[in-house]
Amino acid sequence: MSPVTISDPAAPGKPWKAVRTSSLSKRIANPIREIIAGIDLSAPPEKGVDKPLINLGLGDPSVFGNMPPAPETIEAIEASLKSGRALGYPESVGYPDAREAVANYFDEGPSGNWRVTKNDVVMTHGASGALEMAISVLADSKSNVLFPKPLFTAYETMSTIAGCEIRYYDLLPEQNWEVDLAHLESLIDENTAFCMLNNPSNPCGSNWSEAHIRDIAAIMARHQVVVVSDEVYAGLAWDVSGPTPAAATQPRVEGKFNRGVFTPYASVCGPAPVLVIGAISKRWLAPGFRVGWVIVHDPLGVMGEVRQGLSKWAFRIQGPNSTVQRALPGIFANTPESFYTSTMDELKRVSTALYERLQRIPGLKPILPQGAMYLICGYDLDFADDKAFVTALHSEERIFILPGACFRLDRYMRFVTTTPLPVLMDACDRLEAFCARHQRK
Ligand SMILES: *Cc1c(COP(=O)(O)O)cnc(C)c1O
């Protein structure tokens, strides 16, 4: 675009120079964008390819319209809007009633291990805002931080402000994506600011057992490493590796999360300090509402400075939008248990059918999901790397899917299981033909 010529009476003949940006903003990168840069989704199909595009790259449960939020969620937001109570500035850490609703939702009661009050909660701009806040408060350029691999690569983007060194600990696909504990432990040193956990996992669709989480917690306790636990999929899990934990055989707690199948880290790590990340984006199927939270778990009282840091960080942007914050107590109180269970039934149904279909395609190795909204599938085909694979799949079959490289893992692809099953099955038919043409020689 060429600049418009408007004469400037104050400085005739002196054109404006292009405005420069900060070095911080230049460092912000989107790893996914970089990997799929060569693919133009709006490009017309290749000659001879007469198929509509199937876009499986969108990790957003609202895009196909098949998984709407609960009517109670919408009603609570309408009521919030009409109440006139959401017009002013909330406290920068969030309205007290919103924080209390979050606290009550996660508090395990006098006989539980994880106690939460509203003073432990900071409201944020989605889980993304919570993650950026937690990372920025805990780490700086002298720190290293431990991230899983594969991972939700936004963690890397959110680490830009902190400028910390990122160290990746391996997750083991052959063990349902459990942590390689020895590898994790080998990465810790005196400059480790925190360890990020993500369970249930994006992109793995895995859900760790209570025993495995206790093993991780033991390492964290041994080295006194703070955990940031990204539990944006808390309660969105229907299966777990290993023996069924005792809690799973006890009655489900109405309105709570799927305790027993899903294990909240803070409920088994003892008194060790944790920041728990959450949001209404995924379990309530409304990522656009942009409300999340950080919960401080600190029975030993070693996080006083961190609490202050979170408050200060919150002060920068004065908290997330007031209307959804005010609706939060109603959303939690009124959403029936059947909403959560039917969401999970649907995710399980779709992921099982998809898994079974993919298993029948030579060259593919799907892994059965246990939770979250994803199925990850390995491939062994004649391509140099993931970039070549997704580019060919797009141009030959008009399927777009995020490759494992977008999650720092090569030779995998990630399906989103909130996609309607007929769309996925259609994609599988094309994938089958594609794989037949590209078997390893
Ligand atoms: C979607 C997602 C987030 C971000 O959630 P928002 O509330 O939409 O910001 C964070 N972590 C993981 C693992 C996710 O999949």
Could you list some keywords that capture this structure?
Aspartate Aminotransferase, domain 1, four-stranded antiparallel β-sheet, binds pyridoxal-5'-phosphate, Aspartate Aminotransferase, domain 2, globular, 441 residues, 2 domains, eight-stranded mixed β-sheet, pyridoxal phosphate binding, aminotransferase, alpha/beta
Tell me the total number of β-strands: 14
CATH class of the largest domain: Alpha Beta
Number of domains: 2
Order of helices and strands: HHEHHEHEHEEHEHEEEHHHEEHEEEH
Task: Name the quaternary structure.
Answer: single chain
Modified residues (N6-(pyridoxal phosphate)lysine): 282
Family: Belongs to the class-I pyridoxal-phosphate-dependent aminotransferase family.
GO molecular function, one term: pyridoxal phosphate binding
Protein name: Aminotransferase class I/classII large domain-containing protein
Description:
With 441 residues, this protein is of the alpha/beta class. It has 2 domains: 29-58 and 338-437, Aspartate Aminotransferase, domain 1; 71-335, Aspartate Aminotransferase, domain 2 (3-Layer(aba) Sandwich). Helix content is 34%, strand content 14%. The chain is built from 13 helices and 14 strands. The protein has helices at 23-27, 31-35, 71-83, 96-106, 126-138, 154-158, 181-187, 210-223, 304-317, 322-334, 337-359, 386-397, 421-437, and strands at 54-55, 121-124, 144-149, 165-172, 178-179, 192-198, 227-230, 274-279, 292-297, 364-366, 374-379, 399-400, 402-403, 412-416. It has an 8-stranded mixed beta sheet with strand order 2-9-8-7-6-3-4-5, sandwiched between helices. Helix 3 crosses helix 10 (322-334). The longest helix is centred in the C-terminal third of the chain and has 23 residues, at 337-359. The radius of gyration is 23 Å and the shape is globular. Residues 251-255 have low confidence and may be disordered. Pyridoxal-5'-phosphate binds at residues 126-128, 152, 198, 202, 230, 232, 279, 281-282, 287, 292. The site of pyridoxal-5'-phosphate has 13 residues, from helix 5. Its cofactor is pyridoxal 5'-phosphate. InterPro entries: Aminotransferase_I/II_large, PyrdxlP-dep_Trfase, PyrdxlP-dep_Trfase_major, PyrdxlP-dep_Trfase_small, TyrNic_aminoTrfase. Pfam families: Aminotran_1_2. Residues 52-429 form the Aminotransferase class I/classII large domain. Belongs to the class-I pyridoxal-phosphate-dependent aminotransferase family.
